[in-house]
Amino acid sequence: MAEHHDTSPAELGAPMDYKEHENTYKLFLTLSKWGFVTCLALMIAMAFGFFAGGFFSALVLFIVICLAAWFLL
């Protein structure tokens, strides 16, 4: 026979692990922040590489922007 699992909502007394929820949300915010910084740095480096005409200089600019964000954020 099938096992019986409690499907009642959490508001009715199901235990919640709030510490784990807070840690997950903190990780989500951190990954969102660094994902945004990385995408922005990549777009700036790509534009610089297109207009300045150099892959190496765009790569250096990307690394500089990421390092600057690491120290400033």
Briefly say what this structure is:
73% of the residues lie in helices and 0% in strands. The protein is mostly helical. Residues 4-50 form the Cytochrome c oxidase subunit IV bacterial aa3 type domain.
Secondary structure tally: strands: 0
Strand content is under 5%
Task: Look at the helices and sheets and give the structural class.
Answer: mainly alpha
Oligomerization category of the chains in this entry: single chain
- Gyration radius from CA atoms, angstroms: 22 Å
Form type: elongated
Question: How would you spell out the order of helices and strands?
Answer: HH
Taking the sheet with the most strands, its summary is: none
Contiguous uncertain segments of 5+ residues: none
User: What is the helix tally?
Assistant: 2
Mean pLDDT: 88
Helix content: over 70%
Terminal-residue CA separation: 55 Å
Protein name: Aa3-type cytochrome c oxidase subunit IV
InterPro entries: Cyt-C_aa3_sf, Cyt_c_oxidase_su4_bac-aa3
Pfam families: COX4_pro_2
Keywords: Membrane, Transmembrane, Transmembrane helix
3D structure, described in words:
By secondary structure, the protein is mainly α. The chain has a domain of 45 residues. The chain is 73% helix and 0% strand. It has two helices and no strands. It holds the Pfam family COX4_pro_2. It comes from Phyllobacterium brassicacearum. Keywords: Membrane, Transmembrane, Transmembrane helix. This is Aa3-type cytochrome c oxidase subunit IV.
